[in-house]
Amino acid sequence: MGKPQAGWKIPYFVLALAVVAATCWTVRGTRAQDDDDKPEGPQQAVIERLPLVLRDPQTYRSPMHLEPITSIDVVAQIDGVVSSVMFKAGDKASARAEAVRLESEERQLELDLARSRFQAAQIEQRTAGEGANQELIEAKLDIARNELKLAEHRLDQAISYIPFDGQVTWVHVVPGQFVRAGDPVMTVADLSKLMVAVPVERSEVQPGDTLELKVEDASVSAKVEDVHPLLERFEPLRDLFLSIATARAVIDNSNGAYSPGQTVYSDLIPRHPVSEVPTIALGNTDDGARRVQVIREGFVRDVPVVLLGQSGDDYVFVAGRFSERDELVVKSSEELLDGMRVVQGPDANPANPANRTPDRSRLPDDGF
Questions:
Q1: Total tally of structural domains belonging to the chain
Q2: Does the pTM exceed 0.85?
């Protein structure tokens, strides 16, 4: 019996198991072999296996979604009652367009009064005789002119404007609603670029690099704008990676294919149970993905996995659709195919409960 690998508290077992084809000799459960390829009776194999110690993926989950790279709340400049709202959510809006107007009758009257005073000062200047005090007349005209500018400014404060070309993503008020100065009335965003903060391995990602992300069910290329220290919500991932950071990834959305709020997935945030496995247990599927093999209820199962962080030279964290009673196949003296049934051979020790494997007559339907 070989020695346990360093770092594992539970020893692995070296068993002599008889390998028997299931009802149909299958490869990854998708096709049957020809009759000539079937083995003649049980085959003997020595399988090294380890109990899988699973970690709950919920420990590492942190929801991520797309956000506008530029988003601004348009606010009320004064206290007042909303008179009219010019846009609804989803509308395109141009810079300096009116967004929301407050009731402003009083300020309009102030403007009319200031305009009349300015006109009176102009008339007085034109009709003044030679003996009139020209300096006093000019001073009165300047006062009237400034009062007019102030009245125009006060009236303009009753209107909130769109700050840049963009799209209205939220309207916070309705006509008749009272607002205070500084209250948000509308949110406007530039949706030509969307961003998301994602965890990355610091040694592998630099500003300007391209990241492959998954936005809901679509694969998307994003450009790394900058790399920052790990955000607090990603802290649990330090258990799985040697050096991890946060990258701000930006997606070109000039074609409008994506929207703020869409869910983003990263391979560094596991969605399935996590376990630490020896690197020698890793293999490849036909399409090039990584996989491990487990013994599940007496059958060999191929489990596709996502590689996470390295744990020393000989171990790596992986995430996959594992079950609690799965036993990892570290290595085998014979090739094991997905769906093969394994039973105890004559050299196994049946007195040890860890060595007993259920005797099933068919491949279980476990959803994989």
A1: 3
A2: no
Give domain status of residue 241, yes or no: yes
182 & 89 share domain: yes
**Distance (Å, whole) CA 293 – CA 281:** 8
Say yes or no: 195 and 303 in one domain: no
Residue type (1 letter), 224: V
Same domain, 76 and 143: yes
Strand partners, 47: 15, 332
pLDDT in tens, the chain (368 residues): 444 443 333 333 344 444 433 322 222 333 334 445 555 556 788 889 889 999 999 999 998 999 999 999 999 999 999 999 999 999 999 999 999 999 999 999 999 999 999 999 999 888 887 777 888 989 999 999 999 999 999 999 999 999 999 999 999 999 999 999 999 999 999 999 999 999 999 988 999 999 999 999 899 999 999 999 999 999 999 999 988 999 999 999 999 899 999 999 988 999 999 999 999 999 998 888 899 999 998 899 999 999 998 888 899 999 999 998 899 999 988 888 898 888 876 655 544 444 444 443 334 444 44
95 found inside a domain: yes
> What residue type is assigned to position 344 of the chain?
Q
Residue 312 CB partners (closer than 8 Å, separation 6+):
7
Beta bridge partners of 264: 215
**CATH number (domain holding residue 285):** 2.40.420.20
Q: Which domain holds residue 90?
A: 71-187
